[in-house]
Amino acid sequence: MPIRSLTSQTDLFKRAAAEASAALSKWLSRPTSITINRVSVLPISEAVSLLGLTETPLVACAMQITGLFSGLLVLTSDDASGLALADMLLAREIGTSTTWGEVERSAAVETANIIGCAYLNAMALDPGNGAGDGKQPLMPSPPWFTRDYAASVMQSILMAQASLSDDIFMTHTDFRVDDMPGACSLLFIPEAEDLG
Questions:
Q1: pLDDT tens for residues 83-123?
Q2: At CA 4, angle to CA 123 and CA 141, rounded to 5?
Q3: What is the Cα–Cα distance from 145 to 59, expressed in whole angstroms?
Q4: How many domains are contained in the chain?
């Protein structure tokens, strides 16, 4: 799937994000809204600061993608937004969770799984993605949880891409949930070798 093909498929990413938003809304039993912030090819140095949280902790739940193409799907948030999301899932008053314990991490990982699978299903069903040419469908790994300063998280996420190319392709989608402070971002990052 070459870069020019991906960058011409903004509508596909919007549909995929809409499917993920619907899944999140159903999962939380709350309205959600989506914003496609960016669909672009950019230097890795810019991608690291894309979320604008260089000096604050960032929570990320990442899924490795294989099949039609490979790469990463990453759900990110700041602490306040992520913990508020965990409270919603756990039927707690927002503000109850103050640290990332095992239950809160589990809630974040399962949310990433729900959103990520809905996003990938929408992409895999698109006829322009070669689903009928003998390639395997999009397969996500179980999500994993990490928390660190934003620059460190983004650098570790982009390390594999940095070894193959100076530029990366990225879609950046914001998910806002009713009554939740801030927003969660979903980053879709195909590996450079699939963009050749």
A1: 998 999 898 999 999 999 999 999 999 999 998 888 888 88
A2: 35
A3: 7
A4: 1
